[in-house]
Every structure is written in structure tokens, then in C-alpha cells.
Specification:
The chain is mainly beta and 155 residues long. The protein has one helix at residues 139-142, and strands spanning 2-5, 11-14, 29-30, 36-41, 50-55, 62-66, 81-86, 90-96, 101-108, 117-118, 123-127, 130-136, 147-154.
Length: 155
């Protein structure tokens, strides 16, 4: 995290030294262009090994951000669905995982659309190498045809 207090000096993370908000590197970055506050950079798995921090108004106010190879966080574990249990009112999915990742259930009712929606009001408990995810049946939201998946999200 960068704590910025630089009125009239917008702070950016970039791929090249350039003025204003061009050549921004936005993956994992929150707060681009901040002048007073925080810019947070969560280094993604596929981050380049060198980026720049840069004042958007001054070409010489620049510095390197070096990301040594192998220091980016590991990607999510591969999720394997172990069981799916349907009751008249609910669904329980047991899947593999780790305690650094949360299993997020998502659904859609049409495979021709690209968007998945997070299941509302789910619970997720990790114990003994297994995630147990529980939620209400989805027919009231999307009808009788539903596709489910589990997405891992870093804690």
C-alpha cells in the first residue's frame, strides 16, 4: 500500500513513464490517481517483473517497482467437487480447498451468457481439507434450470 499525500500530484502505477492517466497498470490496483489517501496494489500472479510509480503531471517524478520472479502469490487451488446434496429447501456442496481460499458458489441459468452470479446468502465452512458450502435452492431466482460452479477467492 502506498500512503499518498501529494496535492496536485496524482499517483499512478504504470507500465511506461507517461503523463496523465495513460499506460496504467490496473490489475490488483485500487486508488489509481489518488492525491491524498491510499493506493493499494495486490500483486497478481501474472504481474510483470517491473512497473513504475509515477506522478501523472510530472515526467521526472517516477520510480521503479521491482517484482522479483517467484514472489507473486500462488494461484488458487484446483477445486474438486466431492459431493452435491439436494434437499427440498437447500443445497450442500462439499469441495476440496485450503484455509487461505474461500469457496464462492456461483450460478447462471443460461450457458450462452458469460456472466455468473454469486449465490445469495451462502455459508462456507472449511474443516479437514474440505469446504462445505450451503445455500437455499435457486429455483425462485432462476427457474428449474441452473448451472453451478465453485470459484476460489483468496482470504
Amino acid at each position: 500500500m502506498f500512503n499518498v499525500n501529494a496535492f496536485t500530484h496524482p499517483f499512478f502505477i504504470k507500465t511506461n513513464s507517461s503523463l496523465n492517466n495513460t499506460d496504467l497498470y490496473n490489475v490488483g490496483v485500487t486508488g489509481q490517481g489518488v492525491q491524498n489517501g491510499a493506493l493499494t496494489f495486490v500483486v497478481p500472479v501474472n504481474a510483470p517483473t517491473q512497473l513504475l510509480y509515477h506522478c501523472g503531471n510530472h515526467p521526472l517524478m517516477v520510480g521503479n517497482i521491482n517484482i522479483p520472479p517467484g514472489t507473486t502469490p500462488p494461484g488458487p487451488p484446483i477445486v474438486q467437487i466431492l459431493s452435491l446434496t439436494l434437499t427440498p429447501t437447500g443445497i450442500q456442496i462439499k469441495s476440496t480447498g485450503t484455509n487461505q481460499w474461500s469457496a464462492i458458489p456461483e450460478f447462471r441459468s443460461n450457458l450462452t451468457t458469460a456472466a455468473w452470479t454469486t449465490v445469495p446468502l451462502f455459508t462456507n465452512v472449511f474443516a479437514n481439507g474440505t469446504n462445505t458450502t450451503t445455500f437455499n435452492r435457486l429455483e425462485p431466482i432462476c427457474g428449474p434450470n441452473v448451472f453451478l460452479r465453485i470459484r476460489n477467492q483468496s482470504n
